[in-house]
Amino acid sequence: MLSIRRVLFPTDFSDGAKRAFPQAAYLADWHDAELHVLNVTGRHLHDYEETKERFPFSDDTLAGWLRRPSKSISGSKWPDLEALPITQTQVESAEPAERVVDYTEDEDIDLVVMGTHGRTGLDRVLLGSVAERVLRQSPKPVFVVKPDRKSLVPASKTEAAATQK
Fold this sequence. Notes:
Elements: E1 6-10, H1 15-30, E2 34-42, H2 48-54, H3 59-66, E3 86-94, H4 96-106, E4 111-115, H5 121-127, H6 130-137, E5 142-145, H7 159-163
Parallel strand pairs: 1-2, 1-4, 2-3, 4-5
Helix pairs in contact: 4-6
């Protein structure tokens, strides 16, 4: 059985990442694991200080992402962010997929949970997909959350809820 002690949530602060964060937090909480939050400022962004202002990297941002989003999952048990050990790292300039994979090895990460922009076809070919590159290169399991999909968070933190179909 896979032992999960550290969960990595790489984020670019996009809507796709916002949808993946509750999944990452829930899985970390379920397994009593540390949650690592990683933001890589791509090499194409030259002004790091301006980027930091555009993409606020704080506990308040993460807490806002964890708020119950709608009635559709109102019975769900959401993790208590204050009780969850969170490590935040912001990297100034690197190729995002490469840095995410390196981070999994450097920090002995057991599971990566990340969002995707949902690009297809020519957009994906031209713009690339960080999630796809991480999936291909990571030696660790990667859980990708697609945009505009319902959350798959069990209604309770019981063994039955985790295995129920």
